[in-house]
Specification:
This protein has about 210 residues and is α/β, with parallel strands linked by helices. It has 2 domains: about 1-90 and about 175-205, D-Maltodextrin-Binding Protein, domain 2 (3-Layer(aba) Sandwich); about 90-175, D-Maltodextrin-Binding Protein, domain 2 (3-Layer(aba) Sandwich). Helices cover about 30% and strands about 30% of the residues. The strands form 2 sheets. It has a 6-stranded mixed sheet with strand order 2-3-1-4-11-5. It has a 5-stranded mixed sheet with strand order 8-7-9-6-10. The two termini are about 30 Å apart. About 35% of the residues are buried.
């Protein structure tokens, strides 16, 4: 069987719908089923439902042959996998955001709250800007509001949360979306199966 790691949550619902369109039965992935491993013998696939940030780990180490993961995670963790296809869903962007009245003081170290440490370091390094990163995983918008940091580097979709907290996008670092990835060994030994699914997905991708 082909083991496919799929993200749980909001992105997962979009991914399940996409796989359903190519004939992979994903009906059991909706609803209240608490199982984390679901098999579809008629399609020759086994779905592994995992936390979005863990998909690349399952694929890199061979627990899954292919998976769907956000480009933001690939950029930040740089896993040793093949990136096969931009699925065009889960579109958003990684941005620098700060208070509405923010004015940068380039005479001192910039304090940045983020969970995307690699992305932030690479971005500011390219601008020759010295930063201090404070890693946060939730309610990151609080950091500049309370004076913990100057700015944040985070995922932005509609920007509503920023506006409600009197923050604004200062710079867009990179647009991101969901990507289909493959384990390197699996791509060699299960190439026909993987390239077949990749081709089918490409045919139904949103334009």
């Amino acid at each position: 069987m082909l083991n496919i790691a799929l993200p749980k949550g909001r992105l997962g619902d979009q991914v399940y719908a996409l796989f359903s369109r190519i004939g992979c039965d994903c009906g059991a992935l909706y609803g209240d089923d608490r199982r984390l491993v679901l098999e579809s013998p008629e399609n020759g696939v086994r779905y592994l439902l995992v936390k979005p940030s863990d998909v690349a780990i399952y694929v890199e180490y061979g627990a899954a042959d292919i998976g769907v993961v956000g480009k933001d995670i690939l950029l930040d963790s740089n896993p040793d996998v093949y990136e096969l296809l931009d699925l065009g869903i889960g579109r958003c962007r990684i941005c620098v955001a700060g208070p509405e009245d923010y004015v940068e003081d380039r005479e001192r170290v910039l304090r940045v709250a983020t969970k995307f440490q690699t992305v932030a370091n690479n971005y500011y390094s390219s601008r020759n800007r010295e930063i201090q990163i404070i890693r946060l995983n939730g309610s990151i918008e609080l950091a500049p509001i309370l004076g913990l940091t100057d700015v944040i580097v985070d995922i932005v979709e509609s920007g509503r949360t920023l506006r409600e907290n009197h923050l604004k996008v200062l710079e867009t670092i990179v647009p991101v979306s969901a990507r289909l990835i493959a384990n390197r060994a699996s791509y060699l030994f299960k190439n026909e199966l993987i390239t077949g699914i990749t081709a089918k997905l490409q045919e139904v991708l949103p334009q």
